[in-house]
Amino acid sequence: MIFSMFLSTSGIVLASSMEGAGTETSPYLIRTVENLYDIPKNPTSHYRLMNDLDLQNLERYPMETFMGVFDGNNKTISNLKLISPAGYIGLFSTTSDAIFKNLKSKNAHLESGWNYVGTITGSALNTQITHCFVIDSKILSSQLAGAICGYV
């Protein structure tokens, strides 16, 4: 595995610290929390979660817009904690033309003083979400909140 970043001719930083090519037949393989948070470097690629990930004690902001494919591979992301007075709260703030499948979220704690709050995404535009589950989580918002997605 090579740990470096390359700037493509399109100006997109490629997530080369992960195994795979980011394609449908060879998705980037997410094995660590660091791999997970490398997704914004190329938000239009294909990804597959290879291990359960625990986000306990991590202070993170939601990742920006995701427009790729995320296969949770029946793995679990635990302890996502995001508390903000702003909206668009979730693992990803927004998604557009994305696909999420086979993903479990456990023990998430999301709070927003505004709206658009969900464990996977705050707002989903033209996004397919299948076989995704939320377990033992707390989601608070003034309006437009859901276990998986705040607004569709």
The whole-number mean of residue pLDDT values reads: 89
Quaternary structure of the protein: single chain
Q: Helix and strand succession?
A: EEEHEEEEEEEEEEEEE
Helix count equals: 1
Q: Tell me the span between the first and last alpha carbons.
A: 38 Å
Report the uncertain regions.
1-15
Cα-based radius of gyration, to the nearest Å: 15 Å
The biggest sheet, with number of strands, parallel, antiparallel or mixed sense and barrel status, is: 6 strands, parallel
Secondary structure: helix percent: under 10%
Instruction: Indicate the structural class.
Output: mainly beta
Query: How many individual β-strands?
Result: 16
- β-strand percent reads over 45%
What is the molecular shape? globular
Structural notes for this entry:
- The protein has 152 residues and is an all-beta fold.
- Helix content is 3%, strand content 45%.
- The chain is built from 1 helix and 16 strands.
- Strands 3, 4, 5, 6, 9 and 13 form a 6-stranded parallel sheet that branches. Strands 7-10-14 form a 3-stranded parallel sheet, with no helix packed on it.
- Strand 1 (6-7) and strand 2 (13-14) form a beta hairpin.
- The model is unreliable at 1-15 (pLDDT under 50).
